[in-house]
Amino acid sequence: xxxxxxxxxxxAHGDKKALAALYRALEKPxxxxxxxxxxxxxxxSDVLHDVFMEVWRSAARxxxxxxxxxxxxxxxxxxxxxxxxxxxxxxxxxxxxxQVDDSPDAETCVAAGQEAEHVRHCLExxxxxxxxxxxxxxxxxxxxxxxxxxxGVPEGTVKTRVFHAKKLLMRCLSGRIERRVPA
Amino acid sequence: xxxxDDIHELLPFLANDTLEGEERRAAEAAVAEDxxxxxxxxxxxxxxxxxxxxxxxxxxxxxxxxxxxxxxAEAPQAAAxxxxxxxxxxxxxAAVLLVAxxxxxxxxxxxxxxxxxxPQPEGYSLAGAGAEAPFTVAIAPDTPERALRALxxxxxxxxxxxxxxxxxxxxxxxxxxxxxxxxxxxxxSDIVEDLTLNQ
Lengths: 183, 199
Known about the structure:
CATH class of the largest domain in chain A: Mainly Alpha
Largest interface: A-B, 51 and 52 residues
Structural class of chain A: mainly alpha
Order of helices and strands of chain A: HHHHHHHHH
Radius of gyration of chain B: 25 Å
GO molecular function (chain A): DNA binding; sigma factor activity
Number of strands of chain B: 4
Number of helices of chain B: 8
Keywords (chain B): Membrane, Transmembrane, Transmembrane helix
Domain RNA polymerase sigma factor 70 region 4 type (chain A): 119-169
Transmembrane segments (chain B): 88-109
Number of domains of chain A: 2
InterPro entries (chain A): RNA_pol_sigma-70-like, RNA_pol_sigma-70_dom, RNA_pol_sigma70_r2, RNA_pol_sigma70_r4_t2, RNA_pol_sigma_r2, RNA_pol_sigma_r3/r4-like, WH-like_DNA-bd_sf
Oligomer: heterodimer
Strand order of the largest sheet of chain B: 2-3-1-4
Distance between the termini of chain B: 79 Å
Helix content of chain B: 40-55%
């Protein structure tokens, strides 16, 4: 049962209280997702605003084929892409990261993974597609099918993106520990 | 058949506990007999826990006020209720934020220019709208939005008017908070430069 389906249905009928309730329920995770991709609090706030304006305008067109939360994250995903396009910023999609033979030491990664500063730094080194996939998987605990819906790509693509994101993240974390970068 | 590469692809979704059915069974079986996968899974779980433990800022109620103002502005003219002469709390709260974060970014500036003129939104207002304002306060000009919002929440007050030409705001306690309780917290705050009791 989708916990937000009834609320969105009320929004579709012009209920502003329902829109406020939906905003309060999802504003934080949606903002966090946007911010993880833009890394600018003010721009992220603008995009969040645009997302919920679109929810208000488009609620009646929601067909219920996905969860409401997934639908809203999809809107946020596309808004950020639109912003990147306006800026002329183009992340190459799905190119394979450079191959590295040395595998990161997993034990080291366990320790580094517990340090917020290391994790934050290493997430920022990822490309947008990779960061998006790992953010949705770990911040929002989405399934790979849900991430595929948000990003509008096949499930296999999501698995590949998360796989590469994980690999790069582990390498980065391991490197931070080995270079004794302070957390 | 599930290959080792497949397991590596599934591992993040075992870490976030969303795998189901055959994929979950296959991933768990592979992890159970492979110490390297166990350590990698532990690392992924540590990363996930660390990410989720981060305290994230978000626009909160101020963002909601902005949203409601723009939603109202989009509503058909006929549906708009009569304009109130009084600035409602949600509008004023957004106005406070506008001033508080001046110089820190553009989003609120773009969103708040005509706030005092915005029509009253139907069906949405803060609890204290319409209450008498016992306090007039001056907020330190460089106050960040987060600090201001925290003070309003801690003191249990809402903005019911302002800013005036001098940058003064009218504050009223929300339901269940006495003026004395709110006053004590406001007076002790570093970001309140001046507090006057209204007669």
